[in-house]
Amino acid sequence: MRERLEALKAEALEELAQVTNQQQLNEMRIKYLGKKGPITEVLRGMGALSAEERPVIGQVANDVRAAIEAVIESKQAEYEKAETEMRLRAETIDVTLPGRPAAAGAAHPISKVIQQIEDIFIGMGYTVAEGPEVEQDYYNFEALNLPKNHPARDMQDSFYITDEILMRTHTSPVQVRTMEKKRGQVPVKIICPGRVYRRDDDDATHSHMFTQIEGLVIDRNIRMSDLKGTLLQFVQELFGKQTQIRMRPSFFPFTEPSAEVDVTCAMCGGKGCRVCKQTGWLEILGSGMVHPRVLEMAGYDPEEYSGFAFGLGVERIAMLKYDIEDIRHFYTNDLRFLKQFAHL
């Protein structure tokens, strides 16, 4: 049996010397060291040996296996080293070459319009206030003069999470929270930009998620004329000095009186075109004097203080400003569309 093991060793080492690749090496490993290999077969026959011969033959078998494994591991290391060197040569980077320029990004058109509007109002003395998008029913409706079962709630079909928690339908809750923090102090002069959510079928002019900016002013002796002057200055800063506004009576539960605000069409200068449907006017926002009940619930005495509020859709402004016909372009992340606004 000793002679058989020595012969296997010589045979294996001779064949391993002829191996030239990884596949052949794996085959040799299985052939000589596998469970069905000749060394294993020899060891299975050790049961017929005497007690004195077994440890001697076992040691010889271990020596033969160790010699074969040593040659296999040596060749394995050579092949791995060669493969690594080949990969490094293939993946070599010439560090002397100029780097590929990275494409420069740009602000989204909605972000641009928000920044423009914020800059205008900050220049008029306003501050920017923010609040949660997941809101309590109290702040979203009740504190704005919309108690439970109020029919005007149907104007804003909402995403409710629980009976008392919903995705905010406007940024007006930020106004309420700001008034609460002020604890009856004046002046309050804020704008509130942010995303809002309503159940709506997405089409060219509607989206279930969109961006609003609302404004609020509270102080002594605030009048409707202050609201009109503020909005006129705003639209002229945004669309040009030639822009005029008109205010039409409307209804909002949280303002009284309330008004829809139109601007002269920027496309035709008020002469009438397809954009304004030949009227010369475009509706851009809602506004009004803060309802006394809203002031009272927020801790302000409506006999002493008054205020005005307004709200506009940023997508609506962007569509008018850049002559965009479909609101969905803002959310599809089409680079061909977005690149048009990179340098505006």
Would you kindly provide a written description of the structure presented here, covering whatever features stand out?
The structure is a single chain. The chain is α+β, with helices and mostly antiparallel strands and 344 residues long. The protein folds into two domains: 2-90; 109-341, BirA Bifunctional Protein, domain 2. It has helices at residues 2-17, 22-33, 38-44, 53-90, 109-123, 137-140, 172-182, 224-239, 292-297, 314-322, 335-338; strands at residues 127-128, 134-136, 165-167, 188-197, 209-219, 245-252, 255-264, 281-290, 306-313. The strands form two sheets. It has a seven-stranded mixed beta sheet, with helices on both faces. A two-stranded antiparallel ribbon has the order 2-3. The N and C termini lie far apart (90 Å). The model has no long low-confidence stretch (mean pLDDT 87).
Under the CATH scheme, the architecture of the largest domain is 2-Layer Sandwich
What is the H-and-E element order? HHHHHEEHEHEEHEEEHEHH
Number of helices: 11
Biggest sheet: strands side by side, in what order?
Answer: 1-4-5-9-8-7-6
Which CATH class of the largest domain?
Alpha Beta
If you consult CATH, what is the topology of the largest domain?
BirA Bifunctional Protein, domain 2
Structural class: alpha+beta
Largest sheet: 7 strands, mixed
What proportion of the residues form beta strands (DSSP E)?
15-25%
**How many DSSP-defined strands?**
9
What are its keywords?
344 residues, BirA Bifunctional Protein, domain 2, two-stranded antiparallel sheet, nucleotide-binding, transferase activity, 19% strand, 40% helix, alpha+beta, aa-tRNA-synth_II/BPL/LPL, 7-stranded mixed sheet, 2 domains, 9 strands
